[in-house]
Amino acid sequence: MREVLDKALNELLEETLRMLSLVREMTQEATEALVEGNRAKAEEVIVKDREVDALELKIENQAITLIARHQPVASDLRLIFTVIKALTDLERAGDYAMHVAEDALLLAQDPPLKRYVILQEMAKRLLEMMDTLGKAVAEKDPALARQVLAMDDQVDSLYEEVTRELITYMLEDPRTLTKALTLMRVARSYERLGDHLENVAERVIYWLTGEVYRSPEDVY
């Protein structure tokens, strides 16, 4: 009986890691679409968001079935509820990657306002967050999950930096207003994506240690 439950729990984790990997792909490809002005790549990201939504429902059903069949308790139940709560954040993270792709489509219609140096740096940090988060889950390492929380602080700092830069552009040349506002929306999407990854990291810490960590910026 224990072997059956362990197998089901491992499958639940594997599917959750698959969902995280898909969101990572979306984030990377959306950023490439933004930088390259690649409309086809942006449209691929939008299609992938439907895959994320479908995977969320699949994993949620797996979790509910697991509870009904095995009636897990203690740490096993904590794992299942951690997965269920994390699904919402991963789905929303995917939505924000899709929003970046949608704005990339808009921006690809005209020459770029500037090189997207800080935005690319934000995306790089987000990819590192997802890599570290995946490793934390796979290795059951709460220290790695805590690293994700620190990485989100870096994303927030970059968001403030790029916002100040874009405001300066708008003040100096009102003709840049539309593009600058779209780029601010991209930056905001990255920042919110990071917040959702931070939420998942907090839930991983809870699963592994029982410690409840809540930051002031938690997303609900």
Describe the structure.
With about 220 residues, the protein is mostly helical. It has a single domain (about 1-210), classed as Phosphate transport system protein phou homolog 2, domain 2 (Methane Monooxygenase Hydroxylase, Chain G, domain 1). Helix content is about 85%, strand content about 0%. It is built from 6 helices and no strands. It has helices at about 1-35, 40-70, 75-105, 115-140, 140-170, 175-210. Helix 1 runs antiparallel to helix 2, helix 4 packs parallel to helix 6 and helix 5 packs antiparallel against helix 6. The longest helix has about 35 residues, at about 1-35. The radius of gyration is 19 Å and the shape is elongated.
